[in-house]
Fold this sequence. Notes:
Elements: H1 11-21, H2 27-48, H3 61-66, H4 76-79, E1 82-85, E2 90-93, H5 99-104, E3 106-111, E4 118-122, E5 125-129, E6 131-136, H6 146-165
Antiparallel strand pairs: 1-2, 3-6, 4-5
Amino acid sequence: MSSIQVNxxxxxxxxxxxxxxxxxxxxxxxxxxxxxxxxxxxxxxxERGEAPxxxxxxxxxxxxxxxxxxxIDTAVLRNSINVRNGSAGVAVxxxxxxxxxxxxxxxxxxxxxxxxxxxxxxxxRWRSVESVTIHIPARPFLGISDEDEQEIKxxxxxxxxxxxxx
Length: 166
């Protein structure tokens, strides 16, 4: 699974410690709720075309030229977002091979395979070159937004309140 690691601290970390110490808490269930909330939030970012910090993704050439939404041509990447949880925490990520390229950006050089030159049309003109380098901008989709952090706190606080009542 491609991943970035985000550690939460402060209020969230303290709430998690308190929940772990209570015997009558289904901690795995709480983590599952947190993970599903983050998975949903990540999928919604694809629809809005924005990073966890709220900044807009750079529009893709496909979208600019033909319409649609950036990173949602086939929706394979968006639909591959999954949740894994255990006793220590929860992970939201994907095993899609393209994930890291889109999360962090990349540059790729394409070279001619059969012959000495690549021939293609760009800007209405035919070009013939030995290689071309393309730049794929970062379009972060994994991460925790301010809204996500608030939702995590609320989920943990609700679980703590239920545990103290029951």
